[in-house]
């Protein structure tokens, strides 16, 4: 049995209007029917562009955000049905590392007070001396000195503050830690330190992680299984290496094609898919497939009216697309009006950006040059947004992040 199972979880925020009479006029469908499972000792990575509902889903697991419907089963117990007091006691086994390391720490408390607060609330440690000994031990695990106890959050660097956030979770000895963008606010060198620390702690303590992130390289490095979210729904799920080698959902393919490769020859000779349009509003999601308004492989009748369910195509590879198999074997080709495909020119054609026009009969977007069995998915980190160029060239030392959605 999985340590954590989500069954058709929905989180809808009401939209209210009125001065004298407050009435609900609609809902924001932040999370709309997500089902997944996380095994004990596993790292599950959750990716998707800004506004797709990743963070809301993570907060819903801890019930920091109210769940509209569905089940959150943790070690056989449905957390969604627990009374408040029982849920408070259960949070000792589920902890969260927040995205903003400074904003998640109380600036008026020193580090000892911050870490001891949760221990006292859950009855860990007989007295202050015992709790302090435990805190010093955990600080040593995360690479901080014992003299940090008397210091305040503003006296630390960003990487050190994130280590304090990890230590705050560890002092309660949890089974599951939800990491919400744990390294997105940190420098590249510090990101590597924090990611390596999380892996070491997992090996030593047998922790289970649910990692929410934008950076595809970070997710691939740390995750065993990856789920891709789009507009409140899970559209693809697969083991990490398989997802990068063979992305099946059109949205995942666009994400992977946006990742630059630190090899000029590969970068110049691979397929790019630039999606047209913005992310639709979660307050008014499209009918049928959520992605059909931007999908290059859209088939009007079925895609516009019938919402696809996650279907297993291979061992552990689930895709929410009606035509995933047909797209994979080339039976359905992309529609040029819905996406621009940027491909390398043929030897007898001018390079992209040249003033020389293409000759008669020449196509401005030839088919991909990738050979049979070769994947268009690259191997490095970059922005998740399928419609954005990376802010920094490969090898610049900066870890890129996805562009903000304007939908």
From TrEMBL:
Extent of the signal sequence: none
Skewed-composition ranges (Low complexity): 385-400
Record region (Disordered): 344-407
UniProt entry keywords in alphabetical sequence: ATP-binding, Nucleotide-binding, Transport
Ranges where the ABC transporter domain occurs: 4-256
Annotated Pfam families: ABC_tran (PF00005), oligo_HPY (PF08352)
Keyword tRNA-binding: no
Keyword Transcription regulation: no
GO molecular function: ATP binding
PANTHER family: D,D-DIPEPTIDE TRANSPORT ATP-BINDING PROTEIN DDPF-RELATED, TRANSPORT ATP-BINDING PROTEIN
Family the UniProt entry places it in: Belongs to the ABC transporter superfamily.
Protein name per Swiss-Prot or TrEMBL: ATP-binding cassette domain-containing protein
Organism per entry: Streptomyces chisholmiae
